Amino acid sequence: MEMIKLDKRGQVSIPQSILNRLGLEGEVPMLVETTADGAIVLRPAVIYPVELYSDERVAEFDEADRMDVATAERLGRVLGTRQ
Q: Which residues contact 33 (CB under 8 A, 6 or more apart)?
């Protein structure tokens, strides 16, 4: 366990040895939370890229996902929804 100090602006520096141990480098977004017993917990935030799809791109996905007539009929027979 290492001792760190809160500065006048309410900021702390995490020792390099801890950053190395966690594989953190550069500017890493962090989540901060507190626990019922008064602890402060920091966790690296996970950021997932979000892609917004145009109507045309959604239509491409639909087309690629579409099953052919023979497969649809075979599936209907297996599920009992078609004769």
A: 40, 41, 43
CA 44 to chain centre: 12
Q: How many CB atoms lie within 10 A of CB 82?
A: 11
pTM, entire model? 0.50
pLDDT digits (tens, 9 = 90+) for 30-59: 999 999 999 999 999 988 889 999 999 999
Q: Cα–Cα distance between 12 and 21 in angstroms, integer?
A: 18
Strand runs labelled E in 20-82 = 30-34, 40-44
Check: CB of residue 83 under 8 Å from CB of residue 74.
no
What pLDDT is recorded for position 83?
52
